[in-house]
Amino acid sequence: MNPDTSATDGEGRDRAGSRFPDRPIWPPWPKRLAFLALGLAAAAMRALTAPRRSFGTNRNRIGTLVLEPFGMGDALLLQPLVRALLASGKKVAFAGNPAWAPLFPAAEGFVFVPAKPAWARPDPAGKYRHPLHDLLKAARKLRPFAKGADCIEPRGDPRAILALYLAGARTVRSLPRYWSATDCRLPPFAARFVPLDRRATRREVSRAFAPPGAPYGRPDVSHLLGDAPRPDPKTVGLIPLTPWEGKRWPPEHWSALVEGLRARGFSPALLCGPGEADAARTAIGGTDVPVREAASVADWPRLLAACGAVASVNTGPMHIADAMGVPLVAIDGASRLPLWAPEGPRSVVLQHQDRVPEAPFHPTASNGPIVQRAVMALVTPDEVLAVSFLRASGAASPLAEPNGIG
User: Fold this and answer.
1) At what angle do helices 29-54 and 158-166 cross, to 10 degrees?
2) What topology is assigned to 29-215 in CATH?
3) 3-state SS assignment for residue 176
4) Do the Cβ atoms of 38 and 160 come closer than 8 Å?
5) Spatial distance between the Cα atoms of 340 and 109, rounded to a whole number of angstroms
6) Cα four-point dihedral sign 374, 375, 377, 380
7) Tell me, what DSSP letter sits at residue 313?
8) Where in the chain is the domain with CATH 3.40.50.2000?
9) pLDDT tens string 111-153
10) pLDDT per residue over 326-357, tens digit each?
11) Cβ contacts of residue 254 below 8 Å, gap of 6+?
């Protein structure tokens, strides 16, 4: 595999996504049956509550509410949709993890609603302990903003759809499948479905929810940069952590990459979130690398702006680096691609899903280590080092050469 072939010829990096295997992702049968039951419940709830929902209004005068309670990257990639909705004259609420609120700049007519329901937490034991109680609790929290509003649930998640109906949403638009994680299909009447393009990135999939003709760009974090430092061409940021172990690169690969970067005159820097320094060091095999820790999501753009390039697993800060145009090597293989692939002109995706018939994978608490070795380990440190902007420190400005999906 040649990671530096053109964006239309590079394996795994085709702009149209044709190089990524288009394979379905199926969870175990108990989860499939649970999904079906929740989908049927959503369809029934839509029918039973239709008269009451048709005439409701919310005290915040929200016209459209977008519900995305999961990861940092999920929220960031919906930022263009929020801008498009605001440009059409709507008052918009975004309900998501309160930690991601800084990703959305203040704007007239925009409200960020803190929402972190149990089902969106990474803890596999706690997220399903009290499902009915958690569903009703989420609905109560959303009601002041969702009642009488046109709501968007951009994942195809029947739990979120149910919560929105219980909250009094006038309409709910969603995807026909739980596309962010599996190929499970929702019953036809569960929501108003928008077209699903299987070969699109996450940002592009969400464009189907935007008003026709509204401007639709890419995520922008310039409001968080302030007096950010200029990039140091010799500094290569390393981002090894992500919640699911199956998306992590083996520690010995990170150690070899650090050694290779230093041999070429680069200065690797380990980037991580608050309180993650020890976990990040362990993730790269204990190699002695200076740590730069972000105090919050608002700190990530400043950390990334100081880097001449970044090597990362598929995780939220990776999408921030992509949005900023920082030269980026994304190491992947377990995710659904190109859905979760970076799409900027200076981003390169390295993956070998074509060599593993089971890929991509449905993430579970038990299969992380297996996936890490089966797929992620296939991407070698030499492949990362072969990317043009990592070949030699100071040989060329890392910001001068576009690469990747774009």
Assistant:
1) 20
2) Rossmann fold (3.40.50)
3) coil
4) no
5) 29
6) positive
7) E
8) 29-215, 223-404
9) 999 999 999 987 777 777 888 999 999 999 999 999 999 999 9
10) 999 999 988 999 999 999 999 999 999 999 98
11) 238, 240, 283, 284, 285, 287
* Six token digits for residue 319: 């999408």
CATH for 223-404 is: 3.40.50.2000
Matching residue, tokens 């820097």: 269
Where do we find the tokens 């929290």? 141
Amino acid, single-letter form, for residue 322: D
Q: Read off the pTM.
A: 0.91
For 251, the token pair is: 């520690």
Q: What is the DSSP string of 196-250?
A: --TTS-HHHHHGGGSPTT--------GGGTSSPPPPEEEEEEEE---SSGGGSPP
SS3 content of the chain, % helix, strand, coil (to 5): 35, 15, 45
Tokens of 107: 């704007």
Cα separation, 232 vs 82, whole angstroms? 33
**Residue 400 pLDDT level (bands cut at 50, 70, 90):** very low
Q: For residue 329, what are the contacts with CB-CB under 8 A and spacing of at least 6?
A: 3, 309, 310, 311, 312, 347, 348, 350, 384, 387, 390
